[in-house]
Amino acid sequence: MHFDQLHALYHQPLFDLISQSRQMHLQHWRGEQIQRCSLLSIKTGGCSEDCSYCAQSAHYSTGLEREDLLPIEDILSAAKRARAQGATRFCMGAAWRGVRDGTPKFEQVLNTVREVSQLGMEVCVTLGQIGVAEAHKLRQSGVTAYNHNIDTSPEFYPEIVSTHTFTDRLNTIAAVQQSGMSVCCGGIIGMGESEDDRLRMLEVLSNFDPPPESVPINCLMAMPGTPLSDRPPVEIFEIVRLIAVTRLALPKARVRLAAGRTRLTREGQALCFFAGANSIFYGEKLLTAANPAADRDLQLLRELGLQIEADDALGPPFRLTPAAAAF
Ligand code: SAM
Ligand code: SF4
Question: With a 6 A CB cut-off, is 54 part of the ligand 2 pocket?
Fold first, then answer.
């Protein structure tokens, strides 16, 4: 879609916009369920890149403890726990600039993926920059999707990262597309970008060929110690508008309500689902940031009467934990 079309859609009265995105959603996703994804940081902190939102960058003192690549057994047990909690997609993230074929760490990731892919969930990894050789090997090992976010518009990107370029991001995405893995690619809002920057980001995403299979919309988690630590939260209606336009621009993509849900009310999240979001990141931690508790999420989805993938994982009757009941 062209920027001007996205701009016109975005700036309609809110109810007109979400009526249209709802229609589009029903056309492509009627009867489909909300997907719960679990995200595990398999290698934390100490990253060479200077992404100004990221607590894992070695350029900032964020108090985050660095951890080496987790052993396969630890990742496997986390994946089994996630599946038992109802996740149907398991994502593994590493705080690397990228990874190269032939290195021991890449071999370890491939071995991990071979094990995790036996569990029957979709397997997604996010390891930074890769080329065609790495993408092919990841796919052969059982990775179904590669996450690599463009994060914002090409114009605003240099304001938030100086150690790599927007084009570097696009090159990795092209390698992933070439391998046949599906692309998970989205961005962050609330970093000081304009609403036009967000729409430019959507313009780029909607012109991918093939289009991304999934689009995470992250709200900035302002991490202490990073240059963006004092950014205010984004207004809920800006988030809802962006989700609605994402649904219209990318009708078949899973639109994932990703980081920053702790800052959204239940009502705000409900509007996001109405506007076209159909996936959440699930579980107490999102890489290094807090996430709503799994049982509170499940309660919200059920209260809304939404269909939920693998809802039988916990087995009815659903019982609230004391923390959820007090909410
Ligand atoms: N190093 C890899 C990379 O850059 O692609 C993978 C890990 S990186 C942490 C994955 C994504 O998490 C980023 O592209 C960004 O969209 C999101 N993210 C990281 N920190 C965030 C924050 N503080 N708030 C919101 N989203 C964040
Ligand atoms: Fe490193 Fe990824 Fe964080 Fe950037 S977003 S600092 S590349 S872990």
Answer: yes
pTM: 0.91
Question: What distance in Å separates the CA atoms of residue 50 and residue 56, rounded to the nearest whole number?
Answer: 9
Give the Å distance between the CA of 19 and the centre of ligand 1.
31
Residue located nearest, by CA, to atom 23 of ligand 1: 221
Over residues 150-162, the mean pLDDT reads 98
Q: Which band of pLDDT confidence, cut at 50, 70 and 90, is reported for residue 325?
A: very low
Q: Which of 89, 169, 184, 198 is catalytic?
A: 184
- Please write the tens of the pLDDT for every residue from 254-286: 999 988 888 889 999 999 999 999 998 876 665
DSSP 8-state class, residue 208: -
Tell me, what's the pLDDT at 269?
A: 93
- Find the mean pLDDT for residues 282-299: 70
Are 91 and 147 spatial neighbours (Cβ–Cβ below 8 Å)? yes
Question: How many Å is the Cα radius of gyration of the chain?
Answer: 19
Distance, CA of 57 to chain centre: 18
Active site residue 54: yes
Each residue of 90-112: pLDDT tens digit?
999 999 999 999 999 999 999 99
3-state secondary structure 99-140: CCCCCHHHHHHHHHHHHHHHHCCEEEEECCECCHHHHHHHHH
Domains and CATH numbers, the chain: 3-10+34-310 (3.20.20.70)
In the residue annotation, 37 being an active-site residue is answered as no
- Ligand 1 pocket, 149 CB below 6 A? yes
Q: 83, 89, 91, 198: which one is catalytic?
A: 91
Cα distances (angstroms) measured from residue 96 to each of 26, 51, 54 = 38, 12, 12
| Active-site residue, 91 included | yes
Q: Out of 37, 47, 185, 219, pick the active-site residue.
A: 47
User: Does the CB atom of residue 40 touch ligand 1 within 6 A?
Assistant: no
